[in-house]
Amino acid sequence: xxxxxxxxxxLKRFGIFVYVGKRIYDIELMSIELKKLFEARLIDQETYxxxxxxxxxxxxIEESWGDN
Length: 68
Fold this sequence. Notes:
This protein has helices at about 5-10, 25-40, 45-65. By secondary structure, it is mainly α.
């Protein structure tokens, strides 16, 4: 798992489709859904941490673009 697309595909495996309309909001909602999957023990810790790190990275990128 290397990209935001990979995280989206992970969520889709559980029937979770995220599209709010603004990328940063999509990332935040994906983070919430990812945490719920982990807490429900539907994904392992390694998968959770990889996906979470991708979402954190993408969120930072979106925040930096918003500052310009």
